[in-house]
Amino acid sequence: MFLSDQYQALDFGENRRLERFGKLVLDRPCPAAEFLKKKTPSRWTTADAVFQIDEIASKQSNAQAERGVWVAKTNLGRSFFTNSVEKNDINSAAWQIRHDQAVFELRGTPFGHVGVFPEQADNWDAIKSFCLRQTQLHQAVTFRVLNVFAYTGGSTLAAAQGGAEVVHVDAAKNIVAWARKNAELSQIAPSQVRWIAEDAQKFVRRELKRGNRYQGVVLDPPSYGHGARGEVWRLSKHLPNLLLDCFSLLESDVPCFLLLTCHTPGFPLNRLTHLIEETANVAWGDKLTRKRIRFDARTMTLHAESGATLPSGESVMVCYNDG
Predict the structure, then answer these.
(1) Which strands make up the sheet holding 165-170, listed edge to edge?
(2) I need a labelling partner for 79 at 20 to 30 A (CA). Which of 71, 85, 181, 233 fits?
(3) What pTM did the predictor assign?
């Protein structure tokens, strides 16, 4: 959980979200809030910057997300957002927030993101707790975690701060560089994280061929995407095989975990949980003992100061041999 002076959801509604990241109050698009009404309309006038969608640029872009520009509304906003932008540029300076011991460098992107997904905070706490427990109980054994579709590294930082060695994989080189900066700001030892700009599916398959194994796997796949060399990713088509490969990477004779988060329509919590249960049975077969497996399945939800709630994707964490 974030401390309220670092991040706070303020209100949701009418296809938008109002949040405070550090000192900055931002108003940005949120399709999940399409059918919600704003509970505190007057609060929205306090936004320091508003993300405005550029319909023409969005249609011309190959990316799935809508493009746009951040428009400063206050003096504080103008100190971070320039209100002048060239095509594909970020018209934002950087600022920082903290979660636990992790430091995140934020900036407004041309897609309305800022570099952190606050709904993941409880997952980061769970990852760190699991890794700490195992690294303290088995100090002679290296606890290794693979984080694919790793974005700016929230799960990577949590695992590393739990004492694990982490392999961080994302297809975008600039995003890997961003995550690496977060690790430096968080004072993560360089030897703790291996940084890989690669297609997730290809990397996982190569790890299987190499015989490498992990005690934790984290994946937060998009609905659609492209790998480092243009490989096409479709969650509805590719997730089952990737999940099977990820379970096969886990060293199931020792305590291990897999965490899957998903924001794709058509993949509700019960479907994801069933898919993970089936995949674990196929991957581990006779090794699987029901008494040793634990599922934590939940809808990630943001609770705003206004009283509004926003479902923000699904999360399933399966732990095996954990006590």
Answers:
(1) 193-197, 165-170, 144-148, 216-219, 256-262, 309-320, 293-303
(2) 181
(3) 0.92
